[in-house]
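Per your request, structure below.
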């Protein structure tokens, strides 16, 4: 998914013929203006309407789509075997030129589709003009974008597995670390660190499922819809779909050229990943402060201050959090872009590429950094343990202890509330109150109560499926390890 250098973009008529693939023929003939038009395009209009500066990134999928289309045209007898080979050779040569930076993109040919087609005709002559039979740029651009997105989804999916693997890889080492779990940013209940790591794995797993689900709707052949109504030429769309590996063929030609829901859906999938990563970023930024002092971020992922020598700043995490904004913004752009567009193709739709390309580039860059950052961070065990008895993290377990003994939940809540108030007045944890005080508030207490007090006891007392109970977390770690191994075996 590399994009060729921008310096290769020609925007002046004078430099038009400097590229080896550009002929001297007037662009007006190969553009879409033949016949009806008697005037050329205003230079300012060309600059305003071009998309080559953005969609040149689609060059490889455009060529792939064109070769498949030409193959199909040969299969149905519209192209001879010889014509197909000329077209295929020409397209492959253009791809080489682009990849070796020898191709000059020209805004006079507006977009990637016409740049390539013009170069083809310049290279192989009139037969190149047969390639655009039974298609329009409207179904061509949709096909290119679907091919590109399919690949983009697979790449992000792989990165998500790497990130999950980074979390799972910490689970054994961090298994004995108990952290305060928070709600409303207030200390709530104790949890095993690995339980938190696996919470992220679950989130990224749903992100992966969303991508897979989205991919099935992306993986549909639009080509053959032509401009909007289909074509009278006897094409065989099943062949084209087969050549391009599409699972299905779009059943309505008007639908094909009018919709970008697959682009929006992908943009949303990327947004959800970014949102999950912004939670991680925010959490770890807090954890790395002196106030929390839960985690030490790898120094290679931090930056210093130009004026305060003592500082180690979590800039990478801050930027992961910050870049979420532009990914959300791109989704918003696409939502507004497509609102209220009448059927079928409208030029507005050309604006769909930049936001999605940007979301893809951003989320990929973020994921590339997230995995090693997760691997390299170190929990500050002493600092965490030293303050675990603050915040009455065992109060809920104490309430449940009473409930199991038959005390109604509301009563148990009130009893523990009074005990916590008493402990707060004395500035001690619940486990430091003498049994006598427990008795005074509720006479049903016996010495066993101390078996659930303290964070370790509280965690060990957990039982439910999916809870932070050590045996539950252990079971989940085993599940995730097998799953990650399996994923890597399949990805290989
Ligand atoms: N550059 C255009 C785009 O990306 C290609 C389709 C143009 N179609 C048209 N009817 N002008 O949307």
């Amino acid at each position: 998914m590399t994009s060729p250098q921008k310096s290769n973009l020609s925007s002046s008529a004078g430099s038009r013929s400097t590229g080896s693939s550009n002929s001297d023929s007037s662009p007006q003939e190969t553009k879409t203006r033949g016949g009806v038009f008697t005037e050329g395009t205003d230079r300012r209009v060309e600059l305003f309407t071009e998309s080559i500066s953005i969609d040149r990134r689609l060059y490889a999928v455009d060529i792939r789509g064109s070769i498949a289309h030409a193959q199909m045209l040969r299969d149905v007898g519209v192209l001879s075997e010889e014509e197909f080979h000329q077209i295929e050779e020409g397209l492959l040569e253009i791809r080489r030129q682009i990849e070796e930076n020898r191709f000059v993109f020209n805004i006079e040919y507006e977009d990637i589709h016409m740049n390539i087609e013009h170069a083809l005709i310049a290279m192989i002559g009139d037969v190149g003009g047969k390639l655009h039979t039974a298609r329009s740029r409207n179904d061509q651009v949709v096909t290119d974008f679907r091919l590109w997105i399919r690949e983009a989804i697979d790449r992000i999916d792989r990165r998500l597995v790497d990130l999950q693997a980074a979390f799972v890889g910490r689970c054994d080492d961090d298994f004995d670390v108990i952290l305060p779990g928070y709600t409303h940013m207030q200390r709530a209940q104790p949890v095993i660190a690995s339980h938190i790591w696996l919470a992220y794995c679950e989130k990224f797993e749903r992100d992966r499922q969303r991508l897979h689900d989205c991919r099935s709707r992306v993986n549909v052949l639009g080509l053959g819809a032509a401009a909007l109504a289909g074509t009278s030429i006897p094409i065989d769309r099943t062949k084209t779909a087969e050549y391009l590996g599409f699972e299905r063929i779009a059943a309505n030609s008007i639908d094909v050229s009018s919709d970008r829901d697959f682009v929006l859906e992908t943009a949303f999938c990327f947004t959800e990943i970014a949102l999950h990563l912004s939670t991680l970023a925010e959490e770890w930024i807090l954890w790395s402060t002196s106030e929390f002092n839960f985690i030490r971020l790898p120094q290679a992922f931090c930056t210093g201050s130009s004026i305060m020598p003592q500082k180690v700043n979590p800039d990478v995490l801050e930027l992961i959090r910050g870049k979420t904004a532009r990914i959300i913004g791109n989704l918003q752009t696409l939502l507004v872009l497509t609102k209220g567009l009448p059927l079928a193709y409208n030029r507005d739709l050309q604006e769909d590429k930049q936001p999605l390309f940007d979301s893809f580039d951003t989320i990929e860059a973020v994921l590339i950094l997230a995995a090693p950052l997760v691997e390299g961070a170190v929990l500050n065990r002493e600092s965490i343990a030293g303050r675990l008895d603050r915040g009455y993290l065992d109060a809920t377990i104490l309430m449940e202890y009473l409930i199991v003994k038959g005390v109604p939940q509301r009563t148990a809540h009130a009893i523990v509330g009074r005990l916590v108030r008493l402990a707060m007045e004395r500035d001690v944890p619940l486990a430091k109150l003498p049994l006598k005080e427990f008795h005074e508030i509720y006479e049903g207490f016996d010495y066993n109560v101390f078996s659930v007090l303290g964070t370790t006891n509280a965690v060990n007392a957990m039982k439910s499926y999916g809870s932070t109970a050590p045996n539950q977390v252990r079971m989940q770690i085993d599940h995730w390890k097998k799953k990650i191994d399996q994923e890597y075996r399949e990805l290989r």
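The beta strands are 9-10, 105-106, 178-183, 186-192, 220-221, 248-249, 295-296, 378-379.

Regards,
D.
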